[in-house]
Amino acid sequence: MRLKSYAAKTDQGPYLQVNEDAYDFDFENNLFFVVDAFGGSGIGDKAAENFKQDLKKYYSRLADDPNATMPLYYNPRNILEGNALVNALLNAHQSLLNINNTKTINQRAGLSTLVAARSESLMVLVGIGNCCAYHFREGNLIKIIQEDDMKFHSKGLITSKFRATPLSALGMYPELTYQMKEIRLVEGDKVLLLTDGVFAPIEDDEILYHLSRPALDSAERLNSLLKLSNTKGNIDNQAAMLLEF
User: Fold this and answer.
1) What radius of gyration do the chain's Cα atoms show?
2) pLDDT value of position 157
3) In angstroms, what CA-CA distances link 168 with 113, 164, 184?
4) Dihedrals phi, psi of 58, to nearest 5 degrees
5) What residue spans define the domains of the chain?
6) What's the pTM?
7) What distance in Å separates the CA atoms of residue 35 and residue 112, rounded to the nearest whole number?
8) Per-residue pLDDT tens for 144-164?
9) What digits encode the pLDDT tens for the residues 222-239?
10) How far apart are CA 143 and CA 192, in angstroms?
11) Residue 136: which H helix or E strand, with range?
């Protein structure tokens, strides 16, 4: 399965002075991800940069060897890339947790992420915290990774801007909570990875419209989504990635 087009964008948003969101990719290992860090200037943004390096480092160590011994996690139902991805995330999580344990609470960082790894026509996605992923095929849109945040627990009792607070994050708690999904790609599919600064203010049908409508390229689709989110009240950092097959 060939990746025909891709685009990624991160922006500090209309109000914040520092951008703690990020994205990265490793085309050699077919690895793609977005990051939503927190902690403040010099803390969250630094953690996001360190995580980008850690994830690629730990993933390539495990994915390069088809007979690799999985030191932290192994599930025989998952493809090698899925097991390698979880191990890479567990290692990156432990690295950040060890750093946080040497600091006071107000100096600690955490981060949410959505990571996708591809093996030919099979893609595995892992989500942690307040990021989500959509799969578009033949005019239909499915959210394949749900955000793990306060929205599903608030029952309207929490101010809306706090409902995107993540319930899980790398570096936050000793045990890492994550979601995993495998999809089989076909020609014409689109996979969209988002942080909450993009998806929180907008509806799924609006995302469907922007993925369906004619556009010059993937970057134009992403730019229109970020702009829509900002016009509907976004006050957060933003990161988005679109993969078109």
Assistant:
1) 17
2) 55
3) 10, 11, 27
4) -70, -35
5) 5-244
6) 0.91
7) 6
8) 999 987 666 655 555 555 566
9) 999 999 999 999 999 999
10) 9
11) strand 131-137
Element at 14 (helix H, strand E): none
Is 5-244 a CATH 2.60.120.10 domain?
A: no
What's at 136, amino acid-wise?
F
Percentage of the chain exceeding pLDDT 90: 78
Six-digit token pair at 100? 């946080």
Q: What is the dihedral of CA 189, 193, 196, 200, to 10 degrees?
A: 0
Question: For the residues 61-69, what does the mean pLDDT come to?
Answer: 58
Structure confidence by residue, pLDDT tens digits, 27-50: 999 999 999 999 999 999 999 999
* Three-state secondary structure call for residue 57: helix
**Alpha-carbon distance 91 to 166, whole Å?**
20
Contact present, 230 and 207 (Cβ < 8 Å): no
**Is residue 243 within 8 Å of residue 1, measured between CB atoms?**
no
Per-residue b or e along 159-173, where b marks 16 or more CB atoms closer than 10 Å to that residue's CB:
eeeebbbbbbbbbbe
Strand residues in 40-170 grouped as ranges (E): 110-119, 122-128, 131-137, 140-145
First-last CA distance in the chain: 7
